[in-house]
Amino acid sequence: MLKEVIATRFIAPLREGGSLPGLIEADDLGTYVLKFAGAGQGRKTLVAEVVCGELARRLGLRVPRLVTVELDSVLGLGEPEPEVQHLLRSSGGTNLGMDFLSGAVGFDPLAFEVSPEEAGRIVWFDALVNNVDRSWRNPNMLRLRDGLWLIDHGATMIWHHNWPGAAASAARPYDASDHALSTFAPDVAAAAAELAPRVTEELLAEVTAEVPDAWLTGEPGFDSPEALRLAYARPLLARATTVHRDIHGLRGNQ
Predict the structure, then answer these.
(1) How confident is the model at residue 254 (pLDDT cuts 50, 70, 90)?
(2) Which end of the chain is more exposed for a tag (fewer CB within 10 A), N or C?
(3) Rounded to an integer, what distance in angstroms lies between the CA atom of residue 48 and that of residue 29?
(4) Alpha-carbon span 108 to 9, nearest angstrom
(5) Which structural domain, as residue segments, surrounds residue 144?
(6) Domain containing 200 — which CATH number?
(7) Are the C-beta atoms of residues 139 and 101 closer than 8 Å to each other?
(8) Average of per-residue pLDDT across 117-146
(9) In sequence order, what are the residues at sequence separation of 6 or more whose Cβ sits closer than 8 angstroms to the Cβ of residue 67?
(10) Nearest alpha-carbon partner for 207 in 53, 93, 76, 32
């Protein structure tokens, strides 16, 4: 299971992207980017962050370490901004945190080079989880000395917003024409040959087990968190073997 920490201090809101995460300190003396359970996108955003982040990590991609963050809503009492105070007060309980990568800079496709091999692995992974939020306008990648780090997977697996239509939604091709790495000749075929065999029922069971029960309980149509975990795994297992053949809009070697 993900490590659990307790938020001890709210440092500042981070006004980037479509959500409003915050920077916090925790009882383990770590600094984390906090994704609020009470944010408008709801708990499914947190589920997507965990499933996709932990899957990416197990496939060898760089993702900040994820933790669950227990938040006491009293931390919001002294916050001067009403929007931030509302988020803090409405997010008491279990939230999601990710390691704050000090010194990282946002990825700029015009300023950095990426090899076809690395680009292929990232594009293949994004196709697998249907990530619609890795465009050149908002790459959701950070650059450190050791390479690219992937962040913000809340807009993935869009089929989990409509479970009755999940199979049909997950069968659709992936449009990579707007992908931040589409101009780097991503070698998707090589990535698929390397990574697809590693996406097994066992691996997906391990990944989905990281999601707290609190974020899975009460989903319409499912009688238990375990049943919902299986539903998350099913489309990913199906896509892994074929998705590389259904990626549209790339330039160069596929």
Answers:
(1) very low
(2) N
(3) 26
(4) 32
(5) 105-248
(6) 1.10.1070
(7) no
(8) 95
(9) 2, 3, 4, 5, 26, 30, 32, 96, 97, 98, 99
(10) 53
